[in-house]
Amino acid sequence: MKAKEFKPLPAQPAPVSTIGVIPWLRNNLLSSPFNITVTVIIVAALLAIVPDMLDWLIFSANWSGETQAACVKDGACWVFISAWSQQIFYGSYPDGEIWRVNLSLLLLAGVIASSFALPARLRNKVSVPAYLCLPFVCLLILDGSYIGLKEVTTDLWGGFSLNVLIAAASIIIAFPFGFLWALGRQSDMPFARSVSVTCIEFFRGTPILALFFMGSVMLPLFFPANVSVDKLLRVWIILVLFMSAYMAEVFRSGFAAIPKGQYEAADSIGLGYWQKTLLIIFPQVIKVSMPNILATFVMVFKNTVFLLVIAVPEMLQVIMAALSNSNWLGGHAIEGYLFVGFIFWICCFSMSLLATSIEKKLDTSHKN
Amino acid sequence: MKNAASADQQAIQSTNDKDIIVIKDMNKWYGNFHVLKDINLTVKKGERIVVCGPSGSGKSTMIRCINRLEEFQRGSLTVNDVEMIDDVKNIEAIRKEVGMVFQHFNLFPHLSILDNLTLGPIWVQKKPKDEAEAIAMKYLERVKIPDQANKFPGQLSGGQQQRVAIARSLCMSPEIMLFDEPTSALDPEMIKEVLDVMVELADEGMTMICVTHEMGFAKKVADRVIFMDGGEIVEQNTPHEFFDHPETDRLQLFLSQILQH
Fold first, then answer.
1. How many Cα atoms sit within 13 Å of A217 on the Cβ side?
2. For chain A, what are the domain ranges?
3. Do B155 and A259 touch (CB under 8 A)?
4. Are the beta carbons of A175 and A167 closer than 8 angstroms?
5. pLDDT-based confidence at B228, cuts 50/70/90?
6. Which listed site, A112, B40, B57, B133, has its alpha carbon 20 to 30 Å from A340?
7. What is the pLDDT of residue A62?
8. Where does A84-362 sit in CATH, by number?
9. Which of A264, A271, A364 sits opposite B124 (nearest CB)?
10. DSSP conformation class of A305
């Protein structure tokens, strides 16, 4: 007897009433009397606040001019920002040498872009060394004395470019350090484990402000009298160590998420410890840790404003100096702090978008 | 207890006399828990062995000791004349000869199928990339999924993943293949495609130790079936004797329970 033929039913489109803008509004904002009330209150509140805010921020704001005298209208005095923009972005870096700061930022952008643009085959071979060299290349360019340019001492470096570059330099160096500490922490070797645990717990358990004070005030006391280590260099080292401790914990949670079977499969193929760690475990750890890695990046980037407490002229420090400048007394604090907040928000949000795209790129699971 | 020498004629022809795995008085403890008790097992080159037993009987642990995914505390193990001792060189030498297939496939999810297969040849055997890829494609064809080479493990069905896992082990050209419940995590429809590959492999004379509950497979290809319970080898025999004339009451009970359905 011939069996009956089985024909799968064709897929049908979803009912119209469940997709689109109006059903969405109905389902999410107006689904019950309580939700309707909440929606009405929120809309009313927004109507009360937003027009005034936009007026102050944009329509009645003072956009052009050079001095405080140009700020005649009621709104925000953005002239304050534009007049100080060079200091805000470059600190006291000499006028004629600012291209060096721009070049460093460009190199940073280039290396980040290259790690996205290059085909997978080249990515590890080119981008990884490029990342690791970048902090030192930038150091040479910005300092200048070793490569035949005019020397610019680190006390002149400053502004937002300093926030960006020192955060990037710390992140880049802390990445491998953190990974090594995380490996050390779960190692069988008592020495490696105790060193890693001590470092991680010390730097993670101490506030970054205390570390900065220690670095700037206490650390020089331990050096011999004739040895002086540059303040910015000390700060960099502290940021690297602080960041490494956090990264190590991020990686540790990543290690915990890798199934034991992955180690066993790598072992059964005969891969050695470092092959197993770098080829099998590391890429998967990065993938599961991506949201936490980003959170740590953002944290360190934002923490760079704490450098102001030890008088490193980063962006916020420049704004505060500008606020107390005798030509600009008159309360531009709101504009200044809003601007700092806005710039940081733009940067952190872009990092967030970048991380999302990396997560998508790394996601090979194709699970729903 | 009979041994493999009384196996049927065909089995004897396909094996030669070299002892490729020799386990002597192997004992293992997890903390205070005695998981393996005086295991003695000799496997000849080309021999196909199926290990079965209730869960917790130590069958997986025993085969995982063979490539040192588990360590044992007492006794000795020799694989292809290399003794398993606490020395990286010996462990590496043994792992080179022993391929393993896991219950949950354990493919590397971040690598394409082809990269999963070429990883070992390239990094362990130091073969050039194109040669490794040629080998990989050869084995993918053997497990009948060459068209999936550029996909990722997550895109494949369980049965396909397990066949990739078998191909991955074969790429290292091992002398011995260990299978740790290779079909236990698969849908019924996919079990056959994996067993077919394993039967083919057995027909080609690969030395195999297979922990499985697929009794049909055991009857079809095994030279010897081993029954374990409570961490010891209770009974071992040719499939014919094993299923038709079990000697111990424990095996009789086990067989009556699994063959009821």
1. 9
2. 18-46, 84-362
3. no
4. no
5. very high
6. A112
7. 83
8. 1.10.3720.10
9. A271
10. G
